[in-house]
Specification:
The chain is α/β, with parallel strands linked by helices. The chain contains 5 helices and 5 strands. The termini are far apart. Bound molecules: adenosine monophosphate (AMP). Adenosine monophosphate binds next to β2, β4 and α5.
Length: 146
Amino acid sequence: MPYQHILVAVDLTDECDPVMKRAVALAASTQAKLSTVHVVEPMAMAFGGDVPMDLSMLQQQQFDQAKERMHQFTLSYPQVSVSENHLVYGQPRQEIHRLANEQGCDLIIVGSHGRHGLALLLGSTANDVLHGAPCDVLAVRLQKTE
Ligand code: AMP
């Protein structure tokens, strides 16, 4: 069965490009619907719990910036209809899985730096998304930047 609905997780950096190119080509070859998701993560408690600080304004700014970047991204990829570009708030793994379930996606595409060793311990969204995914996951290998 060819894939019918592909969800691409985008971090809205330049690294989206190879991931999107692969996704667009795959969607075209299987006639699949294409959706994207960017997750705005809750702001880290940079100052620790003891400092009384309202992060809501910073959080709103962060969300507004993501909205603007998502808008620019939308213009770069007219292959994805605007309503299929999702901007959500939360933990990437959880939100990507939730959206894939909700939208009935049968493939999630993420970028992967192919980290290993210590770097892997520090976290990889691709690795995170793979665990407990509600459908197939394709990790598009990204070039090392170092
Ligand atoms: P990372 O492991 O953070 O370097 O990210 C690898 C890949 O995970 C990216 O190429 C995206 O496909 C996906 N990703 C990372 N952060 C996000 C995010 N905030 N929202 C959606 N996808 C993300």
